[in-house]
């Protein structure tokens, strides 16, 4: 009898040890699953950060990321303006497949499969913080364009979001001298408001907008760490989109610059400070080596301030809203401490549509079959420095048919065709020899122009099928 009792006791102990071991292994597995942070600036020009060569701007934290990680010098936005590019980041698909042709002209469809939706199935906690711009975030708000499609409809657990732009300093107030959209006579801001998990926010909305965003992102990450869960944090700053305003501390950093440039650079430096704060947090929590950070901009710099010499697309021609390189080529970094090659500068042609396939590749998650993607994985580029050729061309564009805008760019190898602006004819450039796009080769090489135009039309046909419902179950 006593022997039987001890045998049963021994069996219980063994089972409990096995369960404890299994639980420990599960926790270890979570700790070994990398956290992912997607950071995006808004209207940040290629030439307006230190790591791309700007000697006046103060961006030490981004510059340090460049030295410690991988700088992608040949990185494209999926469109030369905000909403379409944002849709491409989350889905790996052209915005034309989704009906998001320009800003405020549509909303993300529920059937689109997003990065957070993929990652939630893998045990990730998901958070969105900042400028959404893929649909309304207030359910009872009825406006002339767009529809209700908040981030929590697309895989995000925790959200702190605005529908679109706000001032980059004191985001609930109309900036002094600002008399365009959003301006109110009483000094309040009449544009987008912050909504947290569906509820309008009223507290902690003073001062630098980038700090306000990070104040919500860090507690989300802290909770994920406490829960022993990997996290996806999408942090989409408003900086440096207009109204561009910098606080006194940041204006003082640029005493010798013209006033408008003080605000632009000060606003970017304030954003950089918050990126530094984020990195310090990751190190303090001992998770920096288990966290992948991607950084980019949604498009090139705003046209009005670029033409005045305030913002810069670096060596490239054009700006936001144009299909020249200045509207599409954006600063880009990838950092996974102890995994990415420190200081690697890669000229691999990459795009915002590549984020989803790259993340799925890193995590060994298969993409859903039957859903065409426009991106490719650049995992090997950032992890071992492979200089492979891109297997898919890069195609970008946007349209506003009420104003006659229906323009595209198609990049394949060294060559690019594009309709830079409405009313222009298709142009051909050799980007390797002419990155500034000053020499149109359309008349000199009509055969290549015709060939690439035909390839572009095939891509557009595929986009139309997706947009009209071919990819979805109704």
Outline the structure in words.
Residues 34-365 form the Sulfatase N-terminal domain. It comes from Mariniflexile ostreae. The structure is a single chain. By secondary structure, the chain is α/β, with parallel strands linked by helices. The chain folds into two domains: 32-384, Alkaline Phosphatase, subunit A, CATH 3.40.720; 394-467, 2-Layer Sandwich (Arylsulfatase, C-terminal domain), CATH 3.30.1120. The protein is built from 13 helices and 16 strands. It has helices at 2-32, 60-68, 82-91, 95-98, 115-120, 209-226, 248-251, 259-284, 303-307, 325-328, 355-363, 379-384, 446-467; strands at residues 35-41, 70-72, 75-76, 125-131, 158-162, 195-196, 199-200, 231-236, 291-297, 333-336, 344-346, 350-351, 394-400, 405-412, 415-418, 427-430. The chain has a ten-stranded mixed beta sheet with strand order 7-6-5-4-8-1-9-10-2-11. The protein has a four-stranded antiparallel beta sheet with strand order 13-14-15-16, covered by helices on one side. Strands 3-12 form a two-stranded parallel sheet. Strand 15 and strand 16 (427-430) form a beta hairpin. The radius of gyration is 23 Å and the shape is globular.
Mean pLDDT: 93
- Secondary-structure-based class equals alpha/beta
Tell the overall outline: globular
Overall CATH architecture of the largest domain:
3-Layer(aba) Sandwich
CATH domain fold name of the largest domain: Alkaline Phosphatase, subunit A
Low-confidence runs (pLDDT<50, min 5 residues)? 17-31
What's the Cα radius of gyration?
23 Å
Helix content: 25-40%
CATH class of the largest domain: Alpha Beta
Q: What's the name of the CATH homologous superfamily of the largest domain?
A: Alkaline Phosphatase, subunit A
Order of helices and strands: HEHEEHHHEEEEHEHHEHHEEEHHEEEEH
Tally of individual helices: 13
Distance between the termini: 66 Å
* Count of individual domains: 2
Q: Can you list the strand order of the major beta sheet?
A: 7-6-5-4-8-1-9-10-2-11
How many strands? 16
Largest sheet: 10 strands, mixed
Family: Belongs to the sulfatase family.
Signal peptide: 1-24
Protein name: Sulfatase
Keywords: Calcium, Hydrolase, Metal-binding, Signal
């Amino acid at each position: 009898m006593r022997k039987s009792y001890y045998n049963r006791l021994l069996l219980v102990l063994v089972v409990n040890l096995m369960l404890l071991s299994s639980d420990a292994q599960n926790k270890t597995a979570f700790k070994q699953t990398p956290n992912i942070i997607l950071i995006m600036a808004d209207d940040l020009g290629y030439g307006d950060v230190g790591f791309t060569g700007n000697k006046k701007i103060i961006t030490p934290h981004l510059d340090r990321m460049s030295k410690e990680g991988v700088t992608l010098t040949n990185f494209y936005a999926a469109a030369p303006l905000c909403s379409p590019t944002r849709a491409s980041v989350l889905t790996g698909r052209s915005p034309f497949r989704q009906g998001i042709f320009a800003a405020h002209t549509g909303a993300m469809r529920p059937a689109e499969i997003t990065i957070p939706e993929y990652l939630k199935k893998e045990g990730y906690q998901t958070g969105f913080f900042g400028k959404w711009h893929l649909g309304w975030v207030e359910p009872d708000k009825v406006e002339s364009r767009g529809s209700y499609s908040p981030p929590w409809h697309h895989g995000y657990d925790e959200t702190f979001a605005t529908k679109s732009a706000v001032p980059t300093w004191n985001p609930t107030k109309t900036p002094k001298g600002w008399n365009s959209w959003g301006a109110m006579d009483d000094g309040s801001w009449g544009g987008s408001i912050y909504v947290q998990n569906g509820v309008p926010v009223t507290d902690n909305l003073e001062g630098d907008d980038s700090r306000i965003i990070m104040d919500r992102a860090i507690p989300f990450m802290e909770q994920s760490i406490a829960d022993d869960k990997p996290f996806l944090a999408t942090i989409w700053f408003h900086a440096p989109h207009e109204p561009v305003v910098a606080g006194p501390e940041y204006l003082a950093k640029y005493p010798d610059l013209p006033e408008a440039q003080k605000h632009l650079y000060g606003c970017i430096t304030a954003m950089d400070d918050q990126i530094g704060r984020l990195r310090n947090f990751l190190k303090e929590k001992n998770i920096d080596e288990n966290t992948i950070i991607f950084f980019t901009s949604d498009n090139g710099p705003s046209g009005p301030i670029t033409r005045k010499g305030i913002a810069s697309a670096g060596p490239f021609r054009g700006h936001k809203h144009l299909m020249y390189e200045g509207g599409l080529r954006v600063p880009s970094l990838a950092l996974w401490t102890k995994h990415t090659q420190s200081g690697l500068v890669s000229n691999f042609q990459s795009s915002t549509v590549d984020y989803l396939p790259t993340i799925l590749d890193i995590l060994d998650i298969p993409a859903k079959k039957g859903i065409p993607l426009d991106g490719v994985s650049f995992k090997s580029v950032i992890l071992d420095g492979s200089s492979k050729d891109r297997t898919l061309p890069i195609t970008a564009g946007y349209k506003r048919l009420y104003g006659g805008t229906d323009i595209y760019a198609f990049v394949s190898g060294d060559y690019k065709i594009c309709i830079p602006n409405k009313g222009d004819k298709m142009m051909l450039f050799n980007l390797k020899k002419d990155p500034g796009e000053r020499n149109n080769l359309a008349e000199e090489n009509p055969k290549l122009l015709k060939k690439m135009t035909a390839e572009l039309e095939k891509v557009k046909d595929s986009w139309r099928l997706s947009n009209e419902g071919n990819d979805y179950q109704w």
